[in-house]
């Protein structure tokens, strides 16, 4: 009898006892048998660990010495995990019973698939796609990420329109399946990012190395979202802008970067000035700080934070156009409208 691949579901926790209480039971009830459920704790100051030891002694705990953020937190935790597949799962995600099997079957059928995500729906509005990844991540020519079912802040209703299994550009870090050996082969998550868009950067590097990223909507999970840093938080804005620009610099050929980066910075400035005129000074300041942080990174000597692109295969999920133009100027709200 063939043994199923070992899947390690690793939940990164920071002061999230309320989420563990609410959502850990669904993870433990998953129908896939050859799995281990692990909570990696980013030095929580609440009673998360006492709760786990008392109520769920079968859950393995990896206790980190400090709050390393999402990227380094996972890297440090996964060094202590042995499995065929890692699943990076947010603590604020409720999973369906058969969410693991379809993804593993897909990835086992094609060894070139490095990472995959299930369909992400909103926990509080279960017929709506969720911001963090919807039905699979895409990116436009200028590095703006979006997803099947979510363009900027607009999330579509799920009517089965994106239920086909397809290659995408990035898989959501809220529920990312990744081959363990390829996670480390690609260098893991870039720890400089701390949090936000590090999973997109990883998927970009995996594609540049010749592997594929997929969306598997046969698997469904429900995500609360905004659990650590709420929408509009100045730090969240800073990290999103800074990390996105650094990601572009790391993975874009120099000839393209020479025109893409200045254009992106100009568009960021427009967004920042618009927010300033609307009285959102914290947003404006965060964008300005992100640009200064980009230049500091660019001219720093921290070579370990730079992964020169080595293009080996076809890049899937890159939209050959501007999502900013399509959405804000042409008024396109849904993913299906982008190709019309």
3D structure, described in words:
- A hairpin with a 4-residue loop joins strand 7 (137-140) and strand 8.
- By secondary structure, this protein is an alpha/beta fold.
- The protein contains ten helices and 14 strands.
- It has helices at 17-28, 48-55, 69-78, 101-109, 180-185, 198-208, 234-251, 254-277, 281-298, 323-329, and strands spanning 7-13, 35-41, 60-63, 85-90, 93-95, 113-122, 137-140, 145-147, 150-151, 154-155, 166-168, 175-179, 212-223, 318-319.
- Helix content is 36%, strand content 21%.
Q: Name the overall outline.
A: globular
Mean pLDDT: 93
Say what oligomer this is: single chain
Largest sheet: 9 strands, mixed
Helical percentage: 25-40%
Q: Which consecutive residue ranges, at least 5 long each, have pLDDT under 50?
A: none
End-to-end Cα distance, whole Å, is 49 Å
Q: What is the β-strand count?
A: 14
Structural class: alpha/beta
Q: Can you count the helices? A: 10
**H/E order of the elements?**
EHEHEHEEHEEEEEEEHHEHHHEH
As a whole number of angstroms, the C-alpha radius of gyration is 19 Å
Percent of residues in β-strands = 15-25%
């Amino acid at each position: 009898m063939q043994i199923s691949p070992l899947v390690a579901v690793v939940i990164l926790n920071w002061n999230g006892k309320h989420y563990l209480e609410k959502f850990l039971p669904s993870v433990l009830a998953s129908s896939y048998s050859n799995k281990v459920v692990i909570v990696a704790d980013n030095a929580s100051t609440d009673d998360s660990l006492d709760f786990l030891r008392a109520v769920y002694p079968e859950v393995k705990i990896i206790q980190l010495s400090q709050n390393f953020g999402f990227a380094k937190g996972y890297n440090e935790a996964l060094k202590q995990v042995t499995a065929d597949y890692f699943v990076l799962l947010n603590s604020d995600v409720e999973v369906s019973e058969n969410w693991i099997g379809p993804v593993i079957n897909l990835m086992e059928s094609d060894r070139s698939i490095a990472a995959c995500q299930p369909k992400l729906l909103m926990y509080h509005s279960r017929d709506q796609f969720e911001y963090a990844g919807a039905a699979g991540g895409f990116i436009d020519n200028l590095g703006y990420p979006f997803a099947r079912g979510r363009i900027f802040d607009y999330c579509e209703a799920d009517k089965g329109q994106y239920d086909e299994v397809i290659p995408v550009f990035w898989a959501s870090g809220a529920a990312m399946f990744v081959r363990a050996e390829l996670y480390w082969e690609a260098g893991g998550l870039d720890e400089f990012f701390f949090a936000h868009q590090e999973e997109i950067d990883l998927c970009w590097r995996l594609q540049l190395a010749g592997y594929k990223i997929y969306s598997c909507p046969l698997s469904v999970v429900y995500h609360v979202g905004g659990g650590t840093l709420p929408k509009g938080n100045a730090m969240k804005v800073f990290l999103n802008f800074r990390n996105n620009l650094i990601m572009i610099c790391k993975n874009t050929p120099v000839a393209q970067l020479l025109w893409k980066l200045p254009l992106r910075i100009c568009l960021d400035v427009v967004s920042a000035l618009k927010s300033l005129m609307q009285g959102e000074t914290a947003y404006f300041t965060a964008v300005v700080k992100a640009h200064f942080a980009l230049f500091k990174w660019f001219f720093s000597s921290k070579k370990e934070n730079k992964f020169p692109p080595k293009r080996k295969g076809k890049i899937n999920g890159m939209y050959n156009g501007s999502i900013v133009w399509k959405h804000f100027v042409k008024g396109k709200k849904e993913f299906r409208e982008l190709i019309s």
